[in-house]
Amino acid sequence: MHPYNTIRYGMRVEVRGVIMNAWFAAAAILSAGICGLHVVMGGREAARPLLAASGLDHVAKFTNYYCWHLVTIVIGALGAAFAYSSWQASAVDIAQFATAIALLFALWSVAMIVRFRLSPIQFPQWALFILIALLGLAGNVV
């Protein structure tokens, strides 16, 4: 037997007596990774240039900077919601809410790509959020 007493039930995994939803766990890990990516790359590619911009209105600049931090908090909260739901079967509603948020973020990204004729490669948020949403959807059917 595995040293951590792991037993698999489809995509539910029992580790040390706790049954976890592996899909939600994967969504939590992906969300945490994306949050880190947002902080590191977003800080370098979006936040720093925004703060350095001299042609922006003071209020507009700091409102955008504030919103950038709100996105950081929301992505971190998605990870926390999926992590909690991965080991609490009674918390599926929290994972459903997190899945809906990820899906809405993906759809909004696609809408911006279409509306403003952005490159899907240069505006990849849609792909990251759709992956979270798909993992969340899969976890809801286990």
UniProtKB/TrEMBL annotation:
The chain crosses the membrane at residues 20-41, 62-82, 94-116, 123-141. The keyword Transmembrane helix applies. Keywords: Membrane, Transmembrane, Transmembrane helix. This is DUF423 domain-containing protein.
